[in-house]
Amino acid sequence: MRNFLIIAAFCSFAACAGNKGSESSDNAAPAAGTTTLFLGNTTCATSGHATKPENFVEHEGQRAYFCCSKCVASANADPAAAVAKAYANPTAVGNTACPISGKDVNADDSMTWQGHTVALCCGRCKKSFASDRAGHTKTAIESK
Length: 144
Ligand SMILES: [Zn+2]
Ligand SMILES: [Zn+2]
Known about the structure:
Elements: H1 2-17, H2 25-28, E1 56-59, E2 62-65, H3 69-75, H4 79-86, E3 91-92, E4 106-113, E5 116-120, H5 123-129, H6 133-142
Parallel strand pairs: 3-5
Antiparallel strand pairs: 1-2, 4-5
The structure holds zinc ion (ZN) (2 copies).
One zinc ion binds next to helix 5.
């Protein structure tokens, strides 16, 4: 049993370290025409490899993604730091219509979720944004 665990840990590390080739670019850029919009970080903050959607840690509704279970295990020691590191440089979505009301956005009313800064129209929409941050971010991106 103990040997098996060591072998399993080694294999996941090896998979992680050996994934530098062409395979790692597959996750980074979703193919055109796909309906699923991945709103997480595509580069593992621990290893620099491409992330996989099933490997993540969560802190206050934000998920930081990693390349492998080994990176997830070490990030679990401090999920808040992992999320902060994954989204250290937020980018403005650039939407001109509020995803909640459809009205023109106000530069002062924006919210940032998983590195995406979404422009909103008013304080009320900022409160509504918190109820479905993934959904509203997606709407803002798709409205552009
Ligand atoms: Zn890894
Ligand atoms: Zn509003």
